[in-house]
Hints:
Strand content: 5-15%
Number of strands: 11
Radius of gyration: 28 Å
Order of helices and strands: EEHHEHEHHEEEHEHHHEHHEHEHHH
Oligomer: single chain
Distance between the termini: 25 Å
Number of helices: 15
Structural class: alpha/beta
Amino acid sequence: MDFIIDFHDYLIDNDQIMVKELAIISLQSDTNVFETTKIYGIPWDLGYTKTDLLYSILNKLFRKAQCIFVANERAKRRLIEIIGNTNIPIIPFNDNFGTLFKYRTSTGCLHHENREKNNCAYDNIKELAIVSLQPNSNGEFIDSHYVFKPPYSWEQLPKKYRDDYLYRYEVYGIPWQLGHTLAKSQESILMKHLYQARRVFVCESKTKHLLLQIIELSITSLKPIKSSTNDKPSKPSEPSKYVKYKEGHYVFKPPCTWEELSERLQQYYKVDEENSKIKWEEGEYEASSQRQILNDWIKNADRVFVIDENIKNKLKKIVTINKPIICLNENLNVLFEYSTGAKCGWHYDPDESICTKKNAIRIRDFLNKRKHVVKDFDNKQRSKKK
């Protein structure tokens, strides 16, 4: 697998290189327009929203979201490929809710050529919204309701506890002595359901804390019970290495305050900011994680493409690389011209900024169109070894 890397950097004490914005994408492409057209029935040239706006639309949505639900693992992977890595949970229905979501094969949407056979994304999310309001496991609805018998008589309760129950009685209206399930079984009943759960939804944080007090352990430490001999455990589908390492875009928080930088280093960052238009204090990843992030990508690389020797040398100072690093300007004799206009939301002046992700995509587009350039370079390298 070949990766393209570009970044904006600055210096801190001891001339240590710190990355502000980093973009890494895979050189390979696997889109299939014609198969998509058969299912959705939307002609290639139709549309009323510019493709350039896709990233910014999704980026705004993700900034507001606490959780994103999609139909399946494939939809999740595609979304991550578009938006990049995110801390927001993306939950596939089919893999987490035990629900086999079936795409509709008809639609009332006017944008599709054959509305009797085509599938519409808007119809899909309306269907998902309905399914999400119906808790189920393995396709079967769970509707358990318990009223517990009290472990003590009313007279045995201290007065403050009686007052507390009377206050709750005004809300719930269940008399103290009523109940059809023993109170001592509440923990085992809760554990039985929690063992089978992927996620647990409650009304408020107070309910969550009370629930954890009853079962006396964190939800995250629960281990699934062994399935019966009749039930064959389904092996979770793991995304391939290729899919996992398709695109990455990172903006790092600075490791120190602006005042802690020397005047020389402040000027160094201002020069970079003229190009990137990213403010010093902006970022979503800790600066200390830049080396680990780069290592995770590069260990899966066959070759790494960068713009020039300057980027190559800085990259080698940040991480140890034993993979071939190919520079467009020096090795391939390609003069890469920077262009302004960013799609990501980290640049305060997108129209005038140079974005590393846009640079990497432009390099990929060029290399995919001019594959002979890389082949010629490879042939020269082989002849040198001989």
